[in-house]
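pasting for the record
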Amino acid sequence: MTLPRRIVLASFDRPVAVLLAAAAVTLFACIALLGIRIDTDPENMLSPSQPDRVVYDGLKRDFGLNDLIVVGVIDPEGAFRPRTLAAVAAVIDSILELPGVIPEDVVSLTTTDNPQSLADLVDIRPVMARIPATAAEADSLRRAVAGNPYLDEVIASKRGDALAIYVPLVAKDRSFAVAATIRGLLDRGLPDGVRYRLAGLPVAEDTFGHEMFLEMAVVAPLAFAGILLLVLLLFGEPSFLVPVGVVAALSVLWTMGVLVGTGFTVHIMSSMIPVFLLPIAVLDSVHLLSEFQERRRQHGDRRQALDASMRPLYRPLALTSLTSAVGFASLGLAAIPPVRVFGLFVAVGIAVAWLLTHTLVPALLAMLPLRADAANRAPRASRLAPMLARIGSLSFRRARTVLVVAAVLVGIGAIGVTRLRSDDNPVRWFRAGHPMRVAHDELNERFGGTYMAHLLVKGNAPGAAQRPAVVAWMDRLQRRLERDPAVGKTSSVADILRRLNRVLHDGDPAYDRVPMDSEAIGQLLFLFQGSGDPDDLDDFLTRDGDRANLWVQLREGDNHVMQRVEDETARAIRNDPAPDGISIRWTGPNHINLVWQRLMVLGMLQAILGSFAVVFLLMAAAFRSWRMALLAMVPLSVAIVSAYGLVGLAGHRYDMPIAICSSLSLGLGIDFAIHFLEQYRARWRETRSLGDANEHVFGAPGLAITRNAVIISLGFLPLVVSSLTPYVTVGLFFAALMISAALATLFLLPALLRVAGERIL
């Protein structure tokens, strides 16, 4: 007797001991979960030592930059009215006092300096030093802002119907709480008819993380309830709900307990483990219960039925659990730390589910009342049986037709795969119409952009970045960048110098340029620091002048837009090279998003290729045949190429959730083929008849495969009710992938075995 069968029968014979042991482990898991730590910052997708993150951390440190919340106040009748300006000024005063806000770096009407010419002097004071008392004064203020390129479309819209407040944060993880407080201030402080929007990647990402955890609390129970309902409908046995439900719940609880207990933070990715693990954890149980139900129709006695069930199942159960775990564990090769944690701990959960299937399920089957016992009769045959028999007969008889259709689908899919475009945008993680999407759309229409990126201009000596040639080159580069429709505004020390130079010359447009004299630049910078807020200059130039920050505001946050801007910048620099001793590097929030999402997509691709190789070797070792291993890979390969091809043909972006599904599908989708081929080959070896083996496998084994396909597919569908698009995408696409893999197994394998079976088996 094999070890798995001995474990199953021992658990059946000692149910109380098994239940007590499970209860003890569950208690330890609950205690471990008390130490949970949550992280909602997508920036932590990159390790602290990743080069792009090191550069960005250095930029924030050297220039005193912080993550921003962009507050937009919109007055359809005109924001430059005394009543609206007074209300906005009061709100700004309140924001400056909020915990978590860096008051000295707030950019707004009342906190940002505007150099003006005054009696042959430069008068540097806040844009709105006092609140206008009349409409004429308010209109004068509007014209002053519009006439300053540094302020226009930054703190006020070109139409004059909106004002912006840029709120820097002590830490990104404070953005959700600070944003909530600001909303309260605006709700109370703005006049009737004046509305507001809050935008910026920090608040979008923190809001996503917050809503993600809230929705997990809704979606996970929905998925759990849906799985139990499917089990009831597919088996017609109410008592089966207990082992399935307990295995699913304990697999999640124990896995999360191990994750938290070993010191890992629950990140955005790992918060998805419960929803992914719930339908996965029940697959072995469903196979066992399905076989058990059919065997009871023959044996009647539970123990005999359980033993008979394990004879054909112990190998495929071990193999499918192993391949599923390998598929997820392959994410451990990814360059993104939270992705590694997600993959490795889902693999742990699969191992836990396998263990519970072999211990807790038999123990519960020994104790629970079953419908057949109560009625003193065997369970009825499933209603799915006739449909499966027809599929088996059709795919076996029409083998060549099935193979031609599959080849056509693969060809179409291959064309679609070539059209896939990697792209993402954290703001698009919210459904259309979500307040976060609406806020970004409205504010990007009116202002220079809510998506921030930076060009770090680095010199090789003190003062190198403020040399006339370097500042003039930055000025030219800014003009080139602003030709891109996605770039709303650029800002650098060149803007400050141009503005001061013009002001000193009584506003003469001829002096709206960077002085080409080092002494003049030094004097202007000294004047600005001495008359205004020195922190305004620190945002663009280090104290010793060896590095400069060219700030780029984008109106679009998609990765392909950021990549296009970076590529166009590279072309511009080839045509107009940086002065000697100057190097540049992109950084900032939008560039960091581009980097980690690109690493994720590439990491998923590497993971799935590596998983294919490892799973193929596992199949070859298990079947002792490379031909059988290759055959096992065919249905899933067809399903993946077809599904991803349709994504490409439909023009959908290859984004984070689509990339995740690629790795997840491998370990799970091949399960169907493993069970099919194990049962098929075992029957063929007994009868040496392909037709008989085909008929057999579309009996109890095919029924278990179908039940699992329904559960794993529909088990993810509760994700579609989410307001977060990654969940919706995963729910729909992964369901489609699993259905495709199951159908490919049920149609393709009989056809392939009919054509080449005896040479392979």
